[in-house]
Amino acid sequence: MKIYLSLEKKIVLVSILSLLLMTSCSLFKRRQKLPPVPTEQREATVQDGYFYQIAPGDTVNIFVWGLNELSGSVPVRPDGMLTTPLIEDMQASGKTPSQLARDLEKQFATYVRSPIVTVIVNGFIGLPTQQVRIVGEALKPAAVPFRKHMTLLDLMIQVGGLTEFAAGNQSVLVRYQGGKQQQYSVRLNDLIRNGDISQNVSLLPGDILIIPESWF
Questions:
Q1: Which of 25, 27, 40, 61 could pair with 120 as two cysteines, CB 3.0-4.6 Å apart?
Q2: DSSP H or E segment with residue 177
Q3: Chain segment 106-135, per-residue pLDDT in tens
């Protein structure tokens, strides 16, 4: 069955298609203008100075030397607190395992002479500021806990790579530095599908990777 359009409808349709084409071209050019991810010494310094901080949803193993009744595995609640024998509520979120161990020693010292505490973290989730998020055309978009010396290739392996509709070379890395948002161009097709390792870059805690869908 043939569909006939009036001249006015044809003009409107052509105008809409032209607008969509101009918009997509504008977005393409805007992405192309983004600078590449910097490889400065500052990035290496941030990675080297990185220490994991306990987050809500983590599970911590608390070991008190010589006191099995005070030792055990406890979850960190959504409010960032934990409860363990003799201690009803203690802030755990935002602390390193060593910091939490020293705070627990101070609390246990009220009941035990010279307690020695070790904290081991299991089931890492990570604070939002210590996660790397990937959205868009990844096979498994996710918020991934940052690991020291983590790279873009490490992240893509963890989320399963790109979908068949991904515009990998139009991807954008969003990074917050000094309270300001910076955007950088990332060429994932070159890295993953063409094996161009020069496109692999170091990531930082809090990075967000956006992978758009291909228009064509």
A1: 61
A2: strand 171-177
A3: 999 999 999 999 999 988 899 999 999 999
Reading the block at residue 48, the tokens are 């080297």
Q: Which of 79, 99, 122 delimits the end of a domain? A: 122
Whether 46 is in a domain gets the answer: no
What does the pLDDT look like over 75-91, one tens digit per residue? 999 999 999 999 999 99
| Cα 67 to Cα 117: distance, rounded to the nearest angstrom | 10
User: What are 170's two structure tokens?
Assistant: 């139009």
What is the gyration radius of the CA atoms in the chain, in angstroms?
Answer: 25
The identity of residue 58, as a single letter, is D
Amino acid at 181: Q
The pTM for the full model equals: 0.75
Reference 209, options 177, 178, 179, 170; nearest CA is: 170
* Residue 23 binned pLDDT confidence (cut-offs 50, 70, 90): very low
